[in-house]
User: Which sequence fits this backbone?
């Protein structure tokens, strides 16, 4: 069957009960997504469509128009049924099974694209120079990375809003925590590329100590000339013990944080400042408060993220 350029072959929602094979030329399939926005894909030689209409009588998901003069092969349902009647009875079961597998594969592909589009969305937000961004801009930029629909893009944005990283308005969004978005993006990028945990991901002990430091600094912190916030070792030990049900602050529990330079110990003196074993000559610990705040929040979000991405679908 020959079809002239710009001629419409079938409309979204039609039930032609036919299967089509593109033999020559190019056709364009357009469809409206869940938010009534137009999406497109090209169908070149060898492309097929309409299989679900042929086998199960389902309506077409898209409108198909010839981009140029084209030639297609049309297999009507009557010919398909006539051919099937000549086949063994088990052939119908096989085709039904394969059709179901195809539907499952499409759904799995959609879910995978939803999940893998999340880092791309973080990248777009992290590189933005503006804190107020239109949703249209976000959707258009994301199209450079994936074929995610507008509705599913909005679902990803809702996850970020749940984590208080952005705030959604009717047609725009406001970035609430740019640094944390960057941290989350870098963490996911390292996981994807190196198949390993980022150094931003803390152990349970590190998370407990830093959470205690943030709490102590909020209540009793002292701002230093270098911009760091310092807390007394005794106050940090007391908060750690209170917050972590009796956990004792030791040099061993602080060692990795000092190596990563997330915490800095005041210069040791010959004067004994407290009775904490191993810490008796350290008066204070200091840190970049905002950085620690973001790291603690990152480590709260990170374990919840995969579950959110799966269940929100």
Assistant:
């Amino acid at each position: 069957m020959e079809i002239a350029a710009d001629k419409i072959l079938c409309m979204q929602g039609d039930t032609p009960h036919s299967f089509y094979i593109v033999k020559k030329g190019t056709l364009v399939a357009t469809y409206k997504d869940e938010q009534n926005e137009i999406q497109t894909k090209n169908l070149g030689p060898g492309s097929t469509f309409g299989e679900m209409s042929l086998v199960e009588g389902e309506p077409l998901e898209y409108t198909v128009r010839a981009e140029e003069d084209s030639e297609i092969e049309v297999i009507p349902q009557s010919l398909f049924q006539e051919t099937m009647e000549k086949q063994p009875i088990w052939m119908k079961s096989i085709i039904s099974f394969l059709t179901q597998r195809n539907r499952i594969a499409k759904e799995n592909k959609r879910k995978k694209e939803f999940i893998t589009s999340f880092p791309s969305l973080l990248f777009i937000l992290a590189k933005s120079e503006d804190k107020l961004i239109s949703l249209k801009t976000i959707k258009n930029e994301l199209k450079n990375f994936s074929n995610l629909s507008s509705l599913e893009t909005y679902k990803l944005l809702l996850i970020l809003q749940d984590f208080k990283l952005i705030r959604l308005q009717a047609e725009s969004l406001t970035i609430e925590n740019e640094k944390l978005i960057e941290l989350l993006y870098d963490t996911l990028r390292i996981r994807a590329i190196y198949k390993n945990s980022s150094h931003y991901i803390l152990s349970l002990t590190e998370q407990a100590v830093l959470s205690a430091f943030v709490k102590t600094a909020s209540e009793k912190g002292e701002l230093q000339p270098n911009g760091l916030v310092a807390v007394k070792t005794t106050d940090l030990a007391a908060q750690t013990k209170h917050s972590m049900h009796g956990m004792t602050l030791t040099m061993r529990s602080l060692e990795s944080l000092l190596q990563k330079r997330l915490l800095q110990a005041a210069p040791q003196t010959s004067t004994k400042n407290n009775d904490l074993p191993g810490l008796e000559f350290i008066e204070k610990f200091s840190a970049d408060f905002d950085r620690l705040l973001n790291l603690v929040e990152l480590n709260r979000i990170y374990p919840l993220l995969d579950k959110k991405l799966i269940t929100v679908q």
